[in-house]
Amino acid sequence: MALSTILIIVIPGIILFLFLNLAARELFLKLQQVKKKAEREEALAESLRLDFTRESKTLKRVEVKDPVARILCVDDEEVILDSLRKILVLDGYSIDTVETGQEALGLVQTRDYDFVFTDLKMPAMSGTDVAKSVKHLRPDIDVVIITGYASVESAVECMKHGAMDYIEKPFTEDELRSFVRQALIKRRDRIERQLKPRVQVLGPAEAEQGSSAEFTIPGGVLVSPGHCWASLAQDGTANIGVDDFARKLLGRVDAFELPEVGTSVKAGQGLFTLKQGGRQVRFHAPLSGKVVGVNRELRRDPGMFGDFPYGKNWICVIAGEDLDAELPGLKIGKSAVAFFQDEIDRFRAFLQKHSGSEVADPATFCIGALEKLDDARWETAAKEFFAR
Predict the structure, then answer these.
(1) Fewer C-beta within 10 Å: the chain N or C terminus?
(2) Phi and psi dihedrals of 58, rounded to 5?
(3) Residue 209 belongs to a domain with what CATH number?
């Protein structure tokens, strides 16, 4: 049988298979959506028959399976609460509603919520007071103000007390759905920023006071792709050391292997070695030139290296030979901060890949991380992050 004949027979079959597969997937997704909608409508109907007054006088609760978020709504108008409950439950949110701020404060102390939506103008306890109190009791909960057009200025004032945002009423179903989706994105972004270690450009004196969960880069210090830093002097020499990212990943340092004074190096060549037990990491020269000094104090007493790798904890001094060509390849200021943040994300992905699970504490996962790896992963990490 000719190849052209085979292709005429086979290709339509492949196209038909792909079309049927796509159609089956779309049908499956539609059936899943119909099923979820039916479950949520049932949950709404069931909530009308349940009594939560023992927990809170005006509490109504609708819980859905695998909620997108958990929201507590506070408003003295029952029609507003009914509308919020119906719209948001059908969109996949678990909703509690109460009619007073006092009830809301009682609930936030005993239950977990992602958001509190509160009306601004309510008797006894205003939305401003609710926002202040919620952020005091549970700073992890995001507060949204529901306000009429005439009180937008007051809603903005609430944001000074910790409210995330405000939404004006009356609002349509689509406007509410869109607003809540955007609020959820903001919340996730905020949590991600809080979980990430901070990277700050500071003066050397300030940097020494940084916490163990923060990464510091003194102003004016240049950073290489292999995590060495360089601080230039007017005579063209540069103090060289390891940056704060490398210092935190390494944890304990037991010994230094320093270059010989007078050694000529090219940028990217091995320059010095940090040792930890039987392991070692080779760092590469950020600049080309001749080694004109080494910090022999570190070799005599590695313990003096401490937690701050800059300033007096320089490792060697290089008299630069090609600074004009090589300095543009180093990072400084904002570009150094961006580089650190990218490396933190890259190292988190490295740990997840090699451990098969999420890091336990994203704020401090870098601290002494290499110490906890086996020898094979140590070697892989050293090559991937420092051999540049």
Answers:
(1) N
(2) -110, 15
(3) 2.40.50.100
CB 100 within 8 A of CB 129: no
Q: Which one-letter amino acid corresponds to residue 65? A: K
Q: Please list, in sequence order, all residues whose beta carbon lies within 8 angstroms of the beta carbon of residue 39, skipping any fewer than 6 positions away.
A: 64, 65
Number of domains in the chain: 2
Tallying the residues shown for the chain, one arrives at: 388
The answer to the question of residue 20 being in a domain is no
DSSP E strands in 87-182: the ranges are 94-98, 115-119, 142-148, 165-169
Q: pLDDT tens digits for the chain (388 residues)?
A: 555 665 566 666 667 666 666 766 776 667 666 677 777 677 677 777 788 888 999 999 999 988 999 999 999 999 999 999 999 999 999 999 999 999 999 999 889 899 999 998 898 899 989 999 998 888 889 999 998 765 667 767 777 778 899 898 888 999 999 999 999 999 988 877 666 677 877 654 554 555 455 788 888 899 999 999 999 998 999 999 999 999 989 988 999 999 999 999 999 999 999 999 889 999 999 999 999 999 999 989 988 887 788 888 999 999 999 999 999 999 998 899 999 989 988 988 888 887 655 554 555 567 788 888 888 988 999 999 998 7
Q: How far apart are CA 221 and CA 232, in angstroms?
A: 8
**Does residue 24 form part of some domain?**
no
Contact present, 116 and 134 (Cβ < 8 Å): yes
**Residue 8 domain-assigned?**
no
Q: End of a domain among 138, 162, 195? A: 195
Q: How much is the pTM?
A: 0.58
Q: What distance in Å separates the CA atoms of residue 321 and residue 290, rounded to the nearest whole number?
A: 8
Host domain of residue 229: 198-386
The sheet carrying 60-62 orders its strands as: 60-62, 94-98, 70-74, 115-119, 142-148, 165-169
